[in-house]
Write a structure and sequence with these properties.
Helices cover 51% and strands 0% of the residues. By secondary structure, it is mostly helical.
Length: 133
């Protein structure tokens, strides 16, 4: 097979033209739509019910109540003495009031008796005058 030169002949010129056309079209379209809707509803209901039931079972002889200390006994005695003194003072005041009332009543009775005696004397004096007339 003959080569390209041989086919065209010795004096021929082979012209090869290569045209490379590259067209690059890049279209980037970015559409970002962000819609954030946040609804937070918090309902907290706390109901606490505490029931404590304690049952104590004791075995053995009953215990004695605690004894009072000397200071507590002295304090109780002082309170009792103060109460007794207050009661005595109240009784004395009542007696004094009763005595005063009795004295006032006696004075009133004496005044009434004196007034009655004066009225009797006056009426006797009038009667004596009336008899003389």
């Amino acid at each position: 097979m003959p080569g390209p030169r041989e086919a065209l002949g010795r004096d021929s010129t082979l012209t090869t033209t290569t045209t490379i056309t590259t067209t690059t079209t890049t279209t980037i379209t970015t559409t970002t739509t962000t819609t954030i809707t946040t609804t937070i509803t918090t309902i907290t209901t706390i109901t606490t019910t505490t029931t404590i039931t304690t049952t104590t079972t004791m075995k053995g002889p009953p215990t004695q109540p605690p004894t009072l200390t000397q200071a507590e006994e002295e304090a109780e005695e002082e309170e009792e003495e103060e109460e007794e003194e207050e009661e005595e003072e109240e009784e004395e005041e009542e007696e004094e009031e009763e005595e005063e009332e009795a004295e006032e009543e006696e004075e009133e009775e004496e005044e009434e008796e004196e007034e009655e005696e004066e009225e009797e004397e006056e009426s006797l004096a009038k009667c004596g005058r009336d008899k003389r007339r």
